[in-house]
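Worked Example 4.2. Read the sequence first, then its structure tokens.
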Amino acid sequence: MRGLLISRSFDPARWDDLRPGPAVQSGRWLSVMLSRLPGEPLVAYSDGPAGAVGFVGAVISDPEAYEAYNPWMILRRPEPVFEEVHASGPVAPGLGDAPGDLLPSAVLAAPGYIGDPAGPGGGDPETVRRGLAGVCRWARDAGLATVSVLYTTPAGSAVVEPAVAALGGVSFDLTSRGVLRVTWPDWAGRLAALPRRRGEIQRQLRRLGEAGGTVSVLDPRPVFDEVIEARCALLRWYDQPVDEGGERRRLRSLLDAFGPGALLFATCREDRLVACALFVAHGRTLQNVYAGTTAEGRDTAYAHLAATYYEPARFASEERFDVIDYSVGHTETKRLQGCEFVPMRGHLISLH
């Protein structure tokens, strides 16, 4: 490969030639989940002094597009998407506040909230700068207002930030990612590692049992419709857009792509699924994909906590996994579960 290649479709085999690390940057994940981004897919490949580098994301045009991948909402909405963004004052205050000042934007981030560049050149600032410069040229010619790189980890930020600065862009604190280190051999060991919370967790699980709730690991295929129902119910509860057809297609494709590595942790009452958490096992990472909770699940004490945190911890062990990755958001709940928090940065280049 020479120079820059921009593609509006995703080729998992070509992408995996870059040998991306995290589950949410793998070809099989992106082939299914790229449609979760609220815009037209965008894949960029570039070469440089340290080898090939790749970026994946979408062109976001709609000011009402989902907030977590919408740079206008992240940076300018009066009600903050992430508090950290506004802690030091407005980002790029001279850019303007109207949607057209930031959108359309080429948003470089994988669904699952990772924006680190992939490939052997992804750790080299000059290679990344060249790649981003090429994306900026393409985006300017396409009439876009900005290029955004969202959700870089500390390692990714160390490379992306100087590259963005060299292109006249700015970087900012965005949010944090909750990661639970798996240091226990079994459930008893997990509880022993939480001496201040062990009694509380046991009390919560007793309460759940008294309410008729049971928690287990299920094959998601026989309860496919119930998972979709719970997922859509939770999205509606949070006033997020619901595309049941899209949720069905993604879940079906995710199960096909990950096979037995797609794991469903579920709370049931009288054989009814009331809360669930879908994970995928990728290498030594157990990656949280999404949660679902029905109205009955919201009324069932600790149904969500058991499915999302307690049963995955019971399932995981240090022999099989290094981390359970809970992605971004819900910081206080994750803190109580013992998660560490990885700071995530955002980056913006104006094309005006």
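Now turn to a second chain, presented in exactly the same format:
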Amino acid sequence: MSSSTRGAAVVTAASHGLGLAIAERLFRSGFEVLVTDLDAEQAADAAKGIGGWSARLDARYDQACDAIAERAAERGGLAVWVNNAGVLDPTWAHSAGMRRRILDVNAIGVMNGTMAAVDVMRKQRYGQVVNVVSFAGAVHGPGQAIYAASKHAIKAFSVATQAELRADGLTGVDISCVSPDGYWNPDRLEDGGAAVSFDGAHLTPERIATRIATLVTSPHPVPRWHRTQPRPRPTIKIATIMKLGARKSRDHDL
């Protein structure tokens, strides 16, 4: 383990599984990690195990995310925010309540976390947001319709928000998406509907966490292999050119 030299890093849903692997990896990279989770006791136990600190967070509520971002910024600045929290219930026949829950956590929750972090990072003029979009953010998997829709939404949101930051001249704040395929999660193997996504030869949480640590130092809007979707870098460049052009036209008219 190492001590923090790079500021604070927030990881959502980090008391176990992939979130905990991300928190551990970021701590080893020199960040002071704030482990957040719906379960405050589990978050505290996880933080104690890696040498970080903890807080309860329900990312569905924007004010809760704002409070966490401000709290983290007090520890040497908010350097990283990883939106890892997500809900997967593999079936196309969701109840209305489950559809709402998936979208609230996977889409609205990530938007809340991103914007809370960005609000702080804009003032600092630096920082990295990493959104766990999943392979479902690039494909249209049967049995995962609502889940895939939520991940597609976050991919679009992430790229568009990055474009806005660049158009506003903020070059030190980055938003990256990581899109892992299925990963080894024994907790989900007991779920008959989810087992197909979590068994077999899949990625380890540690490997995904290492990729996220890499994105922190070398940000990229989405993985380069997302060829079936609109390319993000041209989107960012076009948005910047259009915004600058609009400003010049407005100034000329005045």
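Notes for the reader: The chain has eight helices and six strands. Residues 225-230, 246-254 have pLDDT under 50 and may be disordered.
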